[in-house]
């Protein structure tokens, strides 16, 4: 008898899938290649767009600041009303840079220990349900507008902490930070530092929490098996593992504190001094708050001066964030236990 081929075998190649299925697989490969190329070019374009925007901001600041940078000191003093007490542009920008860095460092010094404690409690001490709820509450702090923090700091926190500032001045006034005549309103640099510490707390806490949770489980179990207490285990395994992550989180929080505007403007009393007195009114001012205060009534030359101060803030913030990225890039994991 002669074997007859069935219609189902007509599109079947010896040793391979049916022709229809091969065509379908071929189309899928073409689509996958096209999607892969599209995704690659989209991601590349997004990365390039960030660099373009950053360069555009830098160019804008430089171009707009050129009139102030190229003008003589006498011309600036004559044309810019808010520079009457300054002899030059550097003499005007210097105290602002000093005040900006001082307030940000105070906020960082207050926020980092608290953030590390909260992150350790959430990651290694609290029950799972409590840790989840506390994590949500901390993250919600980042969603509160800065103007709300400013109102809270000026109307609630400042009167509340003013007796504490008096106590610090009475018993620790020999320290330059707490010396001088305490402001009766409480709206001083230290109060601004406390408010900024609350504002950057969610950023630092979130990063530290995620870093601590990435500690290799075998390292923790090995420390406990050798007889270490929970705190000794954290001190010997968790904190060394997350050291660079904590530093990078602190740098990110510092970048946020450097650029804060409304909360500082609504609390601090303006001053242009190189002063470390944190409890005396009218000592320091930050760049961002000064720009917001002087912008509405600034002339063309005054606008150029303000943009020049903004250029200084841009450089400081860029350096801080580049430092944070460098620390993250150099982060070394432990020997491989996960």
Explain the overall architecture.
By secondary structure, the protein is mainly α. The chain has two domains: 22-70; 72-329, MetI-like fold (Orthogonal Bundle). 72% of the residues lie in helices and 0% in strands. It has helices at 19-70, 73-79, 89-125, 128-141, 146-172, 189-213, 217-225, 230-241, 243-258, 262-267, 287-294, 300-329. The longest helix has 52 residues, at 19-70. The termini are far apart.
Brief rundown of the structure:
Part of the binding-protein-dependent transport system for phosphate; probably responsible for the translocation of the substrate across the membrane. It contains twelve helices and no strands. It is mainly α and 338 residues long.
- The averaged pLDDT comes out at 84
DSSP E strands, number: 0
Determine Rg (CA atoms, Å): 29 Å
CATH level-two architecture of the largest domain: Orthogonal Bundle
CATH class membership of the largest domain:
Mainly Alpha
User: Structural class per helix/strand content?
Assistant: mainly alpha
Name the shape in a single word.
flat
| Element-by-element helix/strand order | HHHHHHHHHHHH
């Amino acid at each position: 008898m002669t074997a007859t081929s069935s219609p189902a075998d007509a599109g079947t190649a010896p040793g391979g899938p049916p022709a229809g299925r091969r065509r379908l697989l071929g189309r899928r490969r073409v689509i996958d290649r096209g999607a892969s190329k599209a995704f690659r070019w989209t991601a590349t374009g997004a990365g390039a767009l960030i660099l373009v925007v950053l360069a555009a901001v830098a160019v804008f600041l430089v171009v707009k600041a050129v009139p102030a940078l190229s003008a003589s000191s006498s011309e600036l003093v004559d044309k810019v009303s808010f520079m009457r007490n300054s002899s030059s542009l550097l003499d005007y920008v210097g105290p602002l840079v000093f005040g900006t860095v001082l307030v940000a460092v105070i906020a960082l010094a207050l926020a980092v220990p608290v953030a590390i404690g909260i992150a350790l409690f959430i990651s290694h001490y609290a029950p799972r349900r409590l840790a989840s709820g506390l994590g949500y509450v901390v993250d919600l702090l980042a969603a509160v507008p800065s103007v709300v923090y400013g109102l809270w700091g000026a109307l609630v926190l400042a009167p509340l902490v003013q007796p504490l500032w008096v106590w610090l001045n009475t018993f620790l006034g020999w320290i330059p930070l707490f010396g001088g005549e305490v402001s009766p309103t409480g709206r001083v640099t230290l109060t601004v530092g406390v408010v900024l510490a609350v504002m950057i707390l969610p950023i630092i806490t979130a990063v530290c929490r995620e870093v601590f949770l990435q500690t290799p489980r075998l390292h923790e179990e090995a420390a406990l098996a050798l007889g270490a207490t929970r705190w000794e285990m954290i001190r010997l395994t968790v904190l060394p593992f997350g050291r660079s992550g904590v530093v990078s989180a602190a740098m990110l929080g510092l970048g946020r504190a450097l650029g804060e505007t409304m909360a500082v403007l609504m609390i601090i009393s303006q001053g242009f001094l190189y002063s470390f007195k944190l409890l005396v009114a009218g000592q320091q001012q930050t760049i961002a708050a000064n720009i917001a205060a002087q912008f509405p009534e600034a002339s063309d030359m005054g606008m150029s001066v303000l943009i020049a101060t903004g250029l200084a803030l841009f450089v400081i913030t860029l350096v801080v964030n580049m430092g944070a990225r460098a620390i993250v890039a150099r982060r070394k994991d432990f020997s491989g236990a996960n």
